[in-house]
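lol forgot to send this yesterday, sorry. struct tokens for the thing we talked abt
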């Protein structure tokens, strides 16, 4: 009987379950979107129970489409939207509040108080992160501050915190009936609560944020030969399958792209845009607004670290064009609309909808459309939407080159937007390096599958994973230097227009 690996991809807008074979090819796939909840400007939430119920549905749907039963799966790996925070009752699995999503800015006040006179980098030496609403720790504090029942349960030891992979692993392995409460090192490194060097929760930061230690999951390797638990035989899988691999979505894409050597980088174009550079077994501190994070860890081995540049709004800007402005009916139409014009017509869009992430870290920024004239039409706006993703990536690459002292020579790309060939060519033009798309575009889910498959011996080692990687298409720079520099200057001016838009009450 042929066997396979199952990968749960718990994204910001949807859940997917993908079944992979030994060559890393897709055998079965099912997907469901979940509701995006916006209680007020800058706030973003998800319903954790909807995510769990959709998880069960996509597992069943994927197996049904592939004509497989659960017993054909050797293991399950998980990848997830990072930083998104759930606090739930460990006795019955009921969330005390909706999941607070990574994009949410409601913890601005908490973060500014936390930074105090020491500034945004107060915990950077320990965590590799600036103090920002992006990360999970302040989100936990917000829930405890605003939901008395959660605070009371946390003090009594009845509340669990987890990012989305923790929440789903807990349910998959039994939930209230002995479910495993774990988080892998990559997700733990995004909470602002883990010490990068010890890979343990930092007691000083927990004390500063007044977060009870007993709420937190056990930190485990991304690839774990000691399974965290097994699926119930009564579940949609109908079999006890080990759950033993987990990676935050961007780290999963790094693994899926087989970026195992120092200096290898990938960029994922999803809801946001995330560029990771492998820096090896030593964390590299950033002086240019990047994050230092854990790339992955195999049980018994040293962790591999990365520099990361995070952009909050990439594919989400195309969704905004579709849903808020109604200029397109489906996301892929943005390319056709953008091709109706030769350039952006002088218009730039900076999508600082919830502030700017790397390398600026400006919570006070808000989005702008700059350079408008009567000449600009919807084609120019569509083109400016795509170019915004490429320019934001350029900002990160420049910072990464300075921090790592390694000049980027090529960029591996993945995520939903890499099907957009106009964007990929513009990205190569503006970076002035080749941009390479792999044959398997589902690199995030593939990375999760690799983590679980390595853990159970389905794949022997990293070398075997490298052999699975294959190039689909490469875009090479075609833009004249003068045109590139003119475009970059326009982008820089537009970015500056976003600053100081929100005035915080002291």
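and heres what i got for the seq, position by position
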């Amino acid at each position: 009987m042929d066997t396979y690996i199952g990968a749960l991809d718990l994204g910001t807008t949807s859940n997917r379950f993908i079944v992979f074979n030994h060559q890393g090819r897709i055998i079965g796939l099912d997907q469901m979107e979940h509701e995006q909840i916006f209680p007020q400007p800058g706030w973003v939430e998800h319903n954790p129970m909807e995510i769990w119920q959709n998880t069960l549905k996509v597992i069943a749907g994927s197996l049904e489409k592939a004509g497989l039963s659960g017993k054909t799966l050797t293991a399950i790996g998980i990848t997830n939207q990072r930083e998104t925070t759930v606090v739930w009752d460990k006795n019955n699995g009921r969330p005390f509040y909706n999941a607070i999503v990574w994009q949410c800015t409601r913890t601005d006040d908490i973060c500014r108080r936390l930074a105090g006179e020491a500034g945004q980098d107060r915990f950077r030496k320990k965590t590799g992160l600036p103090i920002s609403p992006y990360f999970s720790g302040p989100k936990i504090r917000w829930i405890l501050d605003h939901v008395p029942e959660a605070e009371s349960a946390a003090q009594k030891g009845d509340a669990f915190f987890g990012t989305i992979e923790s929440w789903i692993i807990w349910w998959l392995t039994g939930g209230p009936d002995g479910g495993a409460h774990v988080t892998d090192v990559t997700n733990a490194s995004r909470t602002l609560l883990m010490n990068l060097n010890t890979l343990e929760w930092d007691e000083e930061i927990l004390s500063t944020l007044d977060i009870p230690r007993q709420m937190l999951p056990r930190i485990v390797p991304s690839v774990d030969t000691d399974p965290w638990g097994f699926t119930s035989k009564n579940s949609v899988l109908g079999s006890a399958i080990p759950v033993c691999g987990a990676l935050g979505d961007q780290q999963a894409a790094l693994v899926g792209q087989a970026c195992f050597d120092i200096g290898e980088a990938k960029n994922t174009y999803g809801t946001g845009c995330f560029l990771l550079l492998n820096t090896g077994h030593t964390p590299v501190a950033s002086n240019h607004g990047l994050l230092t994070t854990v790339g992955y860890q195999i049980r018994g081995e040293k962790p591999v670290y990365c520099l990361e540049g995070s952009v909050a709004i990439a594919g989400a800007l195309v969704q905004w064009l579709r849903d808020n402005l109604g200029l397109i009916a489906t996301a892929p139409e943005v390319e056709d609309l953008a091709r109706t014009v030769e350039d952006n017509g002088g218009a730039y869009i900076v999508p600082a909808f919830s502030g700017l992430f790397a390398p600026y870290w400006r919570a006070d920024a808000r989005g702008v459309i700059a350079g408008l004239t009567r000449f600009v039409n919807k084609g120019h706006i569509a083109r400016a939407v795509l170019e915004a993703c490429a320019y934001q990536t350029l900002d990160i690459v420049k910072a990464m080159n300075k921090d790592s002292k390694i000049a980027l020579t090529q960029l591996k790309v993945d995520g939903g937007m890499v099907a957009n060939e106009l964007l990929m060519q513009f990205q190569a033009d503006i970076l002035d390096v080749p941009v390479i798309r792999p044959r398997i575009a589902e690199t995030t889910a593939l990375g999760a599958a690799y983590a679980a498959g390595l853990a159970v011996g389905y794949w022997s080692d990293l070398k075997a994973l490298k052999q699975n990687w294959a190039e689909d298409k490469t875009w090479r720079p075609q833009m004249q230097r003068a045109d590139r520099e003119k475009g970059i200057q326009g982008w820089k001016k537009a970015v500056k227009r976003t600053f100081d838009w929100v005035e915080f009450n002291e």
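Residues 37 and 452 are 32 Å apart (CA to CA). anyway ping me if u want another try
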